[in-house]
Amino acid sequence: xxxxxxxxxxxxxxxxxxxxxxxxxxxxxxxxxxxxxxxxxxxxxxxxxxxxxxxxxxxxxxxxxxxxxxxxxxxxxxxxxxxxxxxxxxxxxxxxxxxxxxxxxxxxxxxxxxxxxxxxxxxxxxxxxxxxxxxxxxxxxxxxxxxxxxxxxxxxxxxxxxxxxxxxxxxxxxxxxxxxxxxxxxxxxxxxxxxxxxxxxxxxxxxxxxxxxxxxxxxxxxxxxxxxxxxxxxxxxxxxxxxxxxxxxxxxxxxxxxxxxxxxxxxxxxxxxxxxxxxxxxxxxxxxxxxxxxxxxxxxxxxxxxxxxxxxxxxxxxxxxxxxxxxxxxxxxxxxxxxxxxxxxxxxxxxxxxxxxxxxxxxxxxxxxxxxxxxxxxxxxxxxxxxxxxxxxxxxxxxxxxxxxxxxxxxxxxxxxxxxxxxxxxxxxxxxxxxxxxxxxxxxxxxxxxxxxxxxxxxxxxxxxxxxxxxxxxxxxxxxxxxxxxxxxxxxxxxxxx
Length: 498
Ligand SMILES: Nc1ncnc2c1ncn2[C@@H]1O[C@H](COP(=O)(O)OP(=O)(O)O)[C@@H](O)[C@H]1O
Ligand SMILES: O=P(O)(O)OC[C@H](O)CO
Hints:
InterPro entries: ATPase_NBD (IPR043129), Carb_kinase_FGGY (IPR000577), Carb_kinase_FGGY_CS (IPR018483), FGGY_C (IPR018485), FGGY_N (IPR018484), Glycerol_kin (IPR005999). The chain is an alpha+beta fold. The protein has a domain of about 240 residues: Nucleotidyltransferase, domain 5. The protein contains 17 helices and 23 strands. The strands form 7 sheets. The protein has a 7-stranded mixed sheet with strand order 17-18-16-15-21-22-23. β15 and β16 form a beta hairpin. The chain starts with a strand and ends with a helix. The structure holds adenosine-5'-diphosphate and SN-glycerol-3-phosphate. SN-glycerol-3-phosphate binds next to α10.
């Protein structure tokens, strides 16, 4: 027997989570597990593929144990994942050839620079909507083929498979019966043509990637495979897949052009729904696939910031000036605005709209009076300034779109800080909406699966279930806003690598 429960798997950068949602979109059981991060060289970030798999398996079992009927009560599985992270494994043995190269990893900065020097960036951008930055999967995959012993020969003979984390988990869950991904994940690889909706032979050729390694690309709500019953005791169907930022866009019900969601976790990722039209950014934002439903692609403009909540982690683990993230707000409130510092948290380079992989973090305005409270305030404010950069770029790019006023829906761990959300609204001079349900990423994956299973309603009714927790309205005077923005722009200018 199966019910209206949906199991959502959210495989993130620092932890794996599983949530069971009921037919009223409420979270009824949860499992969560952190796993090790590996930093073998400066700028390198890796995950052990087995950790991604075993932690996912464990959290699913934990969540399923929390509902009556366990796996037999589940109508479908949705998967959402950290994006761009790159894995290669053997189709014969299922063994990965090396650790997963994580989206934050910068080891291919020189490869990207060389491709740019050779004049290839325009081609990649035109076809994929992305830029030549080490963030995306393509150059990470090329690195594996060029640097892991025997990998290129094995790939060329058809033995090796490539996948983002969704593909890897589906391969494991189905006992090696499905090598698939969805259009949103494919759109982050630098190998996928987002207009024609297919892997691109020319781009694969430029990066030296054999096309036999690539997974089949499906809609975001589709039949991806059946989970081997040995894992959970029942045959579950995987019916929804999307990259985590796209899943949050769905979970926030940003279905209309002009709606923006911005997620504040480790990094910050803002997506503006541009509807069925792909908008080419004039301001170094990405064009990407928001979701593909029933063969119809909806596009988004995306701004990606690599450091948001991780600046708060740095206050805690690097500087030791707070013990828990939630303390940051109180300390920031105690800071004297006359001692204002500007922190540019370019710990792993700068993302949108600067795309400067070689920049490193800097702090400006230090005096003998500067102390922990000022560092805290600067860290929280840096998130607001970086978002302002993105929203300004989006406003300029969307000027020709026929949309209502911009609506910003926020989610992620950092949105718990009212102070940070108020500062964000002040800087943007626009309202910021925080929903009641903050598990929007998992909810988005669950909706895709529930919709495909036919047990959850369509977009309109699902949109009606979005409820506001709090709207932050701008309170800052225009003169102050302009002064602060100019201070930030100056700090960024002085931080840039060239
Ligand atoms: N009250 C808070 N104030 C500021 N930052 C917070 C607060 N609570 C959590 N965070 C930050 O939010 C991040 C965790 O958010 P989460 O959405 O779970 O991230 P991820 O999915 O990327 O692991 C951490 O980096 C943490 O520092
Ligand atoms: O795992 P998260 O939530 O930090 O998200 C990572 C993004 O998908 C990277 O593009």
